[in-house]
Amino acid sequence: MRYFVLWVLMATWPIAGQAQHYNTYGMPGLIDMSVASSAPDAELAFSVATFASRTRGSATFQLSDRMSVSLRYAQLRNLHDADGRPYDQIFDRSFGLHYRLFDETTHRPAVAIGVNDFVGTGIYAGEYIVATKALSPQISGTLGLGWGRLASHGGFPHPLGGALGDRPDAPIGEGGAVTTAALFHGDTAVFGGLTYQPHDDVKVILEYSSDGYRAENGSAFDHQSPWNLGLIYWPRPDLQLSAQYLYGNEFGLSASYGYNLKSAPVTRPPSVQHTGPFDWQIKPYIAPSLFDPDAPLRADFGLALTGEWRIAPSVTAGGELRQHIAGNLHRITRESDSVLPHVRSDFAKYSREGDLDLNSLTLAWYEQPYPNVATRLTLGLLEEMYAGASAEALWQPPGSAVALGVELNALQQRGYESDFRLRDYQVLSGHGSFYWDAGGGYHVQVDAGRYLAKDWGGTLTLSRRFENGWSVGAFATLTDISFAEFGEGSFDKGIMFTIPLVEAGALSQTIRPVTRDGGARVHVDGRLYTFD
Questions:
Q1: Does 246 score more than 70 pLDDT?
Q2: Which are the contacts of 305, defined by CB distance < 8 A and separation ≥ 6?
Q3: Is 8 exposed, middle or buried (0-12, 13-18, 19+ CB in 10 A)?
């Protein structure tokens, strides 16, 4: 009854604006719990939070006005599972989703649903539905229901009962599997909180948390109370600093930095008029390896010399030579345990053999044999790990939002020395592709075909591109290999982004939770479809 009264009070107050902040999971929230509001559209935020021998880092993107997506990485020490089995240390990767169903109005709170651990190991698996309403210009209230981990304190049977009342056991796993059978199932618990913003750059938070920290309680820290208290300070509009008193006996710290991609200045260089048949450029490169169980962050840095020679109007030769300057990728000693052909998982071996690498050297021929049809044939050292031939055709009528493509690749794996030597592994790969410009900068790409490890399947890619040159996207690939055969991560997935640079064109990077062999494709410069 008291929750119903609180809900009615929240629904009758007028709308008032407060500065949006990020919780310890990197999502719009209170302290640990979520709220129903959202960050500004197109905001990209990086967050870090630490308390009780655990650290969470996250990158969160406001994909649309209503949808937030987050990639998280956490280091956890001193846990135990439901059977009491101890874990000294775990590096956990997970994706989070937050969707605002209803906007706040004068008589209705904002309402959102979310998933904290969509394809992770299950440590943070929890779902919620939450409402947030302004109680005054400085005060807002939040009330929600949680499941999974978010019902580990004060839980009660599912209000709808039936099949929803049972939640499958979720032991700590290798991550990657989409556990839809457990979503919004099992016991339910209430969470909530109040925020008070006495000044534009200060906010105070009182939170009632439904997370009992069962895997940590008694080992990492003692959970003595569900009440948390937080203080947030904004030294500048894009930087959030927070301190918290948590669960009756712990102190925590967190920080978030937000950058809105829509308001970012246009940094793409003006169109270049070629004055001759040969162009070259020296630019920095970074080759990162993230989420290694032995070291969460590794990277190589250096300079790349790129060149392009326009032999004829439709024929181009190009290549890239890389000089390694600093880094630690060569220190990766963990050998691949993949049961598939090692088409990507041996990537570290390419960093151990010398500091000067011939990354690519190709000859490409472009033609338009029919109206609305373009073709490409590329020969040579296509990328760091593969040489061969790549043929492509693209159908794209002028002004059409839809395009269709097909690509066929005859490939042989390159030697670890990154010169002209080749290894024995050969593969014929290829895909049919569907491209859709959905408008508003949103793009959809679906690829289906054969991958480098000779597995068959498909890839879905969603991306958003901005006029200033920024882009952010995510992809997932499922093939005919099982999650067990794929290994850690269960299936290939990740995020990619492009940062425009005035002097060096653009920096494009793909981040995967783990690099395995299933669902891998060859990288070929000069593919025909562009999202511009």
A1: yes
A2: 280, 281, 282, 320, 321, 322, 323
A3: exposed
CA 34 to chain centre: 19
Residue 281 has a CB neighbour count (10 Å cut-off) of: 13
Distance in angstroms (rounded) separating the CA atoms of residues 468 and 260:
12
For residues 226 and 211, give the distance between their C-alpha atoms in angstroms, rounded to a whole number.
8
3-class secondary-structure state, position 268: coil
In angstroms, the first-to-last Cα distance of the chain is 55
Q: What are phi and psi of 260, to 5 degrees?
A: -90, 120
Residue type, 498: T
Closest CA to 300 of 315, 285, 290: 285
- Please give the backbone phi and psi of residue 230, each rounded to the nearest 5 degrees, phi first: -135, 150
Name the phi and psi angles at 8, rounded to 5.
-60, -45
Backbone torsions φ then ψ of 486, nearest 5 degrees:
-60, -40
Superfamily holding 2-260: monomeric porin ompg (2.40.160.40)
207-238 pLDDT tens trace: 999 999 988 877 788 999 999 999 999 999 99
pLDDT in tens, 449-478: 999 999 999 999 999 999 888 999 999 999
Q: Enumerate the β-bridge partners of residue 511.
A: 495
Q: 3-class DSSP state for residue 410?
A: strand
pTM: 0.85
Distance CA 435, CA 458 (A): 14
Residue 402 to residue 72: CA distance in whole angstroms: 33
Q: In the chain, where are the structural domains located?
A: 2-260, 278-511
Please, which residues have CB within 8 angstroms of residue 161's CB and are 6 or more apart in sequence? none
Say how many CA atoms lie within 13 Å of 93 toward its Cβ: 20
102-147 pLDDT, tens digit per residue, is: 999 998 999 999 999 877 677 888 999 999 999 999 999 999 999 9
Same topology, domains 2-260 and 278-511? Answer is yes
How far apart (Å, rounded) are the C-alpha atoms in residues 71 and 249? 29
Tell me if 304 sits within 8 A of 359, measured CB to CB.
yes
For residue 358, what are the CA distances in angstroms to 96, 353, 409, 432, 509? 39, 12, 20, 30, 19
Two structure tokens written together for 466: 């901005």
- Tell whether domain 278-511 is in CATH 1.10.8: no
Cα–Cα distance measured from residue 515 to residue 352, given in angstroms and rounded to the nearest whole number: 17
A 10 A CB-CB count for 366 gives 16
